[in-house]
Write a structure and sequence with these properties.
Its main location: cytoplasm. This is Sulfotransferase. Its EC number is 2.8.2.-. A hairpin with a 2-residue loop joins strand 1 and strand 2. The protein has a domain of 193 residues: P-loop containing nucleotide triphosphate hydrolases (Rossmann fold, 3-Layer(aba) Sandwich), CATH 3.40.50.300. With 304 residues, the protein is an alpha/beta fold. It contains 14 helices and 6 strands. The two termini are 35 Å apart. The strands form 2 sheets. It has a 4-stranded parallel β-sheet with strand order 4-3-5-6, with helices on both faces. The protein has a two-stranded antiparallel ribbon with strand order 1-2.
């Protein structure tokens, strides 16, 4: 099991604002830009499983579900390392790691579970060429925005978000890492008609985890006993994961993630986001949302 460092509260100093460089019209973290040539040439394998999400849309949660499925419910195997070390991001790099994530991926045995926050049009071409299976998880915009805001507050990996009002404006205009939430969810929604993509909704998984996990199992062509299915659902529940140091990011020092400011896993309950908005902010956001999602067949639930 991964070593867990005691998390004592020493307020972390925020770094200078993250440099944003665009790739394909999408703002990405400077670390991704620096190695973009290698990322774009990343070689996928036919049996790779890709977990794709916009930031703060249930990435860690779905990773735990998929890890439990791949390890046939072996809890100890799923505690072999912290979340960031078990399944690398295709495009991300972290200053506290000795290797780039894509280098970690190259050394992993098959079958690999890889993560990405990239929009569909920036995915390495080899993923499409190899016809990899992809699971995409989408979360409703307001909850995603508020969760992203609190994540900015507690991690030194991202710049200070200032006020929620300022962050809301940047989110609506796509001036955050990984760009427009609207383009991201719509891009992957369109891609599912051409590729092996299971498109899931955060709110559906929260409302009926058994039904959604069964969808995943069918997509992965796996058949497991009812007892194991129930075990997976229990182990990957919010309350259990919140206490799991290899999944809740408390194993990282406060110089990277300062949980007393805001825990990485806060509430996870659909509908929480709108409570942070004023009446005026809600009206402005809803008007902008209707404009940007006009013509899309995507429908999100804000409550369960």
């Amino acid at each position: 099991m991964a070593q867990v460092e005691e998390n004592t509260h020493t307020p972390a100093k925020k770094p200078p604002p993250m440099s944003i460089l665009e790739v394909g019209g999408v703002p990405l973290p400077i670390s991704s830009n620096e190695i973009w040539d290698k990322i774009s040439k990343f070689e996928a394998r036919p049996d790779d499983l890709i977990l794709a999400t916009y930031p703060k849309s249930g990435t860690t949660w779905m990773q735990e579900i998929l890890d439990m499925i791949q390890n046939e419910g072996d809890v100890e195997k799923c505690k072999r390392a912290i979340s960031l070390d078990r399944h690398p991001f295709i495009e991300l790099t972290f200053p506290f790691k000795k290797k780039y994530d894509f280098e970690m991926a190259l050394e992993m045995p098959s079958p690999r579970l890889l993560k990405t926050h990239l929009p569909s049009h920036l995915i390495p071409p080899s993923v499409w060429r190899q016809n990899c299976k992809i699971i995409y998880v989408a979360r409703n915009a307001k909850d995603c925005l508020v969760s992203y805001y609190h994540y900015h507050r507690m991690t030194t990996l991202l710049p200070d978000p200032k006020s929620l009002e300022e962050f809301c404006q940047k989110f609506m205009s796509g001036e955050v890492a990984y760009g427009s939430w609207y383009d991201h969810v719509k891009g992957w929604w369109a891609a599912k008609d051409k590729h092996q993509i299971l498109y899931l909704f955060y709110e559906d998984v929260k409302k009926d985890p058994k039904r959604e996990t069964e969808k995943i199992l069918k997509f992965l062509e796996k058949d497991i006993p009812e007892e194991l299915l129930n075990k997976i659902i229990c182990y990957t529940s919010f309350d259990v994961m919140k206490q799991n140091p290899v999944a809740n990011y408390t194993a990282l020092p406060t110089s990277i993630m300062d949980h007393p400011i805001s825990p990485f896993m806060r509430k996870g309950m659909p509908g929480d986001g709108k409570s942070f908005f004023t009446v005026a902010q809600n009206e402005e956001f809803d008007k902008d949302y209707q404009k940007k999602m006009a013509g899309s067949t995507l429908t999100f639930h804000t409550e369960i």
